[in-house]
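Chapter summary example.
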Amino acid sequence: MKYLIRVLAVLLIASGIVACGSDGSDGLNGTDGSNGTDGTNGTDGTNGAGQVIGLSQTGRYSSGVFDASAAEIVAYDKLNNRTYVVNANSGRVDVLNSATLSNVTLITSISVANDLVTAGAAASTSVVGAANSVAVNGNIMAVAVEAEPKTNNGWVMFYNTVNNTLLRAVQVGALPDMLTFTPDGSKVVVANEGEPDEGYVNDPEGSVSVIKVSDYSVINVGFTDFNTGGTRNSELPVDKMVIDGFNATVAESLEPEYIAVSSDSTKAYVTLQENNAIAVINLSTNTVDKIFGLGFKDHSIPGNELDASQKDGVNIKNWPVMGIYMPDTISIYTFNGKTYLVTANEGDSRADWLAGITDQATCEAAGYFFSTDDTECIDEFSAKDYYDSDNVTLVNADGDPFITDSTGTAVHGGFGSDSGLYRLKFSYFTTQKMNGGTNFEKLYVYGGRSFSIWDAETGMLVYDSGSDFERITANIYGADFNNDNAANAGDDRSDNKGPEPEALAIGVINGHTYAFIGLERMGGIMVYDVSNPYAPKYVQYINNRNVSVNFDASNFEEAGDLGPEGFAFVSAANSATGTPMLIVGNEISGTTTFYSILSTALSQ
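The structure predicted for these 604 residues follows.
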């Protein structure tokens, strides 16, 4: 038996089954298995070679109408080489033949009011207001039309672009101010601003309508859950946004302005301009995912300087001022697999609607200032207009007057004179709320005088152009910078939102992503390479405005384009010329201008 065990042990050792001792030599490699399935392609990187681009005006159409919103929002029809232009002055949508840019002509004008009546969607043309927005996808054009009065529900109208005949009209919320197709073309998303009328007699709720193109069904997404006492009120980032309005609920205060949709058509990002916030809408469930508060821009730090007075020439410097971004237009793009939002930080107040409130007690209870001289409820406050006997004061961190004379006495409550903050218009509501009273250490002004890039997931600020717009235009125009758009009056807008960036478009050219930003007051287009959202680069500023001409309705054509309101970027693949284009609707001059975007590649 012992002999048998010893034999077995020897056999086991020889066969390598017993683990003790050194390892034997590796055997031959087996046959390779079959290849696995290829993974999904990664996102294309930016073209490694640099390039220079430049805008060149190659076409222009004039409505011949001055300062009456005769050319606002534009949309390009790539299948028919046409451009659709919202002409709020006529209540129509102008259709331009833009196949030959050197000879842009009017094909026809679509009367949305007449079409609504013919379709039975409106009882008469008297209950139809202005067209506000237009968008094109394939052979379908959609138009947003407000009601008369604007506090009633408006409409979205769908047209066949081949013959411009009405397909369907559907009712949406109050004051549909902007609309866009989702990238997959399956839906139209509408920003219903819900703006109040003068005196806040009627203040409809803001909302977002989602229209399914296949059957024209409409779902309205509202914000009532965010009202005081609502299930989601605690989610509001109240320290980073503005919730105001005269005796308004949150849903009435929120005013959707503009929309950008993610590339996969699942999310809509909606600027709530007066509220300094962005709402994220889930287009799969038609619900509000979240609301971002954008916070405030600190103009007291280097790089964020501003000119605060229209009576001191070029005086761009740091001040104890916080900018309320309040973006109008929003766009979207991706970088390294992440989504980023781009905003034009125009700023806006509720001054027009507060003006009709004449009761002092209710005005002040709502957080506004009441002017007894004008019998008017005020949010746009300046020391020049309303300072009296220290009803408000501007102080430094130690509580002393911010600006004093040579004797140490406060000048106009610390606001100073024309070269100080005496003339700067700021939000009384937000300033007194954020300062906890009327001894102000910081003034909160409308807009950021800039464009910004935001992380779409977190809402965090990635980049802001700081004082670029004022600095660049001042270098070119000197004291004629910060001009108004309806008259040549240099420095005129320094006290009130400065150059006022409003229009915005994003375009990709040879692998580089560019942002085009329109300055509504000064005019012209700022161009930045935003391929890397963390390090944008200034490219160009172009403005065909003539600031030396004194113009009015009789000779406004001599002044060039005035008041850029809406942009449309057209890629080279979709352009009739084979060259990328930027189409600009100019609200004040009533012109539609076509820019070819020329590029020159640089060797690595």
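To summarize the output: Residues 488 and 550 are 6 Å apart (CA to CA).
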